[in-house]
Design a protein that fits this description.
By secondary structure, the protein is α/β, with parallel strands linked by helices. It has ten helices and twelve strands. Helix 1 packs across helix 2 (about 150-160), helix 3 (about 180-190) packs antiparallel against helix 7 (about 255-270) and helix 4 packs across helix 6. The model has no long low-confidence stretch (mean pLDDT about 95).
């Protein structure tokens, strides 16, 4: 069963001092919540989204916008992340493009979008902003942080930044360190070649839609979207048309400067040397056909976690859907998530 009538929410959490020493005034985060917060505020799970996704993790807004959230298969009444038991929060990342403060936001000092002047942020800053949001919502402790891809980066960072605030970390199709700077350099070069780029100040020059659409099409193909669309679109031409439609829809919404801001933060991300700080149990899930975070990563990551004394378990997601398998085939890994949350919850109560 899917949640109906989910609402988009926004909250201004105030000033945020960044790892760099810069300060962002009046930071706002977009978010959604599912379920009810218990008295004492300790039944919460934070769900963290991927690189270019949004806070719409579960349910549907209504008849006018029936698109389910990206993890609707695992979040809801009776599902692995059971909203009859847990209060679930999904926050749009600081620096992103779906309602949170980011490069397209207005810089109060200039009255214009920050654009390329938006300060550099780190995963620790993204997590610190989420911590302030949770405090404002009355959450006093997290049962778990669960996220996919870039959301997995956030889960690991949560365990390092706030080790006593969270009992479990679930990182799916992800890793405890980001990819190198090559991807960001390629994206930067592609955007710089757009005639409307204007050094990243393209808000008044017609935008960079075509370049963003092309980048998204390449990304969706690499993520395994063609395979995940095969059941609904058995005809290859129809499948390609749907992929191009998805790419165009995203390119009309997502800010190119956000793509670079978050990409640079991911390239710098690495908490493997800080595993000794982790107090939470860890569930690590990788898809058999994921080209971004292949299963070959698992032995080294698991060995480092266990060498640091972390209670960690690994679950293989057997799917042909690559990087998007956790969303497109939730039943293939939801049982592992359900068991993990039951174990974490039991430990938290004892």
């Amino acid at each position: 069963m899917s949640l109906i009538g989910v609402e988009k929410q926004r909250l201004t959490i105030g000033e945020l001092r960044l790892v760099s020493g810069a300060t962002l005034p009046q930071v706002t985060l977009a978010f959604e919540t599912y379920g009810r917060l218990a008295a004492g505020g300790r039944n919460a799970i934070l769900v963290t989204h991927g690189y270019t996704s949004s806070a719409h993790a579960a349910g549907r807004y209504g008849a006018a916008d029936p698109q389910p959230g990206w993890w609707d298969g695992v979040i809801g009444p009776g599902k692995a992340i059971d909203t009859d038991r847990f209060f679930v929060v999904c926050s749009n990342m600081l620096g992103s493009s779906y309602g949170s403060t980011g490069p397209a936001s207005i810089n109060a000092r200039t009255g214009r979008p920050y654009g390329p002047d938006f300060p550099e942020i780190e995963l620790a800053d993204i997590v610190a902003a989420q911590r302030l949001l949770l405090k404002a919502l009355g959450v006093t402790h997290l049962i778990a942080v669960a996220g996919v891809s870039y959301g997995g980066f956030q889960a690991f960072q949560w365990g390092v930044s706030f080790p006593d605030f969270v009992d479990g970390l679930c990182a799916v199709c992800s890793a405890p360190q980001g990819r190198g700077p090559d991807t960001v350099a390629q994206t930067t070069a592609a955007l710089a070649a757009d005639p409307h780029w204007n050094g990243g100040r393209y808000y008044d020059t017609g935008g960079v839609f075509e370049t963003m659409r092309a980048l998204r099409s390449q990304t969706l193909s690499r993520y395994g979207y063609r395979e995940s669309l095969a059941e609904r679109f058995p005809d290859p031409a129809a499948r390609d048309a749907e992929l191009q439609r998805l790419a165009a829809d995203w390119a009309s919404e997502f800010d190119a400067n956000s793509l670079l801001t978050l990409g640079r933060a991911a390239a710098r991300f690495d908490v493997t040397a800080e595993f000794s700080r982790l107090r939470a149990k860890v569930l690590y899930v990788l898809s058999a056909t994921d080209k971004l975070f292949p299963p070959a990563l698992a032995p080294e990551v698991m060995a480092k976690l266990r060498a640091s004394g972390v209670d960690a378990e690994y679950a293989a997601l057997e799917s042909t859907h690559g990087h998007v398998a956790s969303s497109s085939e939730p039943d293939k890994w939801a049982p592992a998530l359900r068991r993990f949350l039951a174990r974490v919850s039991a430990t938290a109560r004892s």
